Amino acid sequence: MKFSVIIPLYNKAPYVAKAVGSVLAQTFTDFELVIVDDGSKDNSAQIAEKTIEGHDNCRLIRQENAGVSVARNNGVALSHGEYLCFLDADDWWASTFLEEMSKLIEEFPDAGIYGTGYTIVNETKRKTRVAPIGVDGDFEKDYISYCQVYAKTLAIPLWTGAVCIPKPIFDEMKGFPKGIKLGEDFLLWIRIALKYKVAFLNKALAYYNQDVDAANRGVGRLHKPAEHMLWNLDFLAEEEKTNPDYKLLIDNLRTYGLLPYYLSKEYHEAAKQELEKVDWNMQPQKTRKQYSKRIAVLRLENRLLKTAARIKGLLCFVMRKRVKL
Q1: Range of the domain at 323
Q2: Alpha carbon of 19 to those of 85, 93, 281: distances in Å?
Q3: CB 246: neighbour CB atoms within 10 A?
Q4: How far is residue 23's CA from residue 89's CA, in Å, rounded to a whole number?
Q5: For residues 92 and 79, is the Cβ–Cβ distance under 8 A?
Q6: Tell me: the pLDDT tens digits for 115-162?
């Protein structure tokens, strides 16, 4: 069997049928689907079970709630495919995802991880768009420098719903780290990308759904430092000293990703300490200027920006209602 597709499932009743359906609709059919219900409290598991009914290459397993990393790792442990693909239960694939991934593997057999472009779906804010991954406009497919591409636009070049990993490499890396709630996938991808080649197909074949209840999303809220990827990179401290591409990427992620924590009262000091690792000489003037402001001024500016965004959203909502009338 060529592919094992792993779907972790937790309280995604409104979305899971579409996610599973997109896997069942693949034009490339040499795959198995393993759905891992991570102790859902809604009827997600029942919907998934009904959706795969009659498909011998699909199965649903249940576990007590242990988090997405454990769910994915357990799914992999029960899988039989040569290559692993992952799909969250609120996202979905184009019907040719596995077919295109199979071709990419054949063309770039030495890669340790494979990725494709993807579409960010946000109809709520009318911002649905292809992720602006930092490759040239005429780039089609090839090996890429993961750190350089990621640092260029901070659009994730290896997004969980659009990657494929040879199973032996996943096993070598010991899977997804437990206990991390934001960036557990990045901590796996970066370890692979620093050791193996990364092959990328610049074609949007997966859909990253941001029209999801915020309570069921890891992004968009603050996490404890112990649960956040940026506070858990000490194992790559030597890489940060010797690899300038990795250093620039991590510093860019710090200045971008830690800003909400820096502005908060609860995590300000922890974020400030982490930001001391940044090489500010390599940061753009705009970023240096932003962090040079007094924290009170920065917090006020942030509140004003949020207020303006809410007003703009409300006005857009009213205008849409008026057009419908």
Answers
A1: 300-325
A2: 13, 7, 44
A3: 22
A4: 11
A5: no
A6: 999 999 987 767 899 999 999 989 999 999 999 999 999 999 999 999
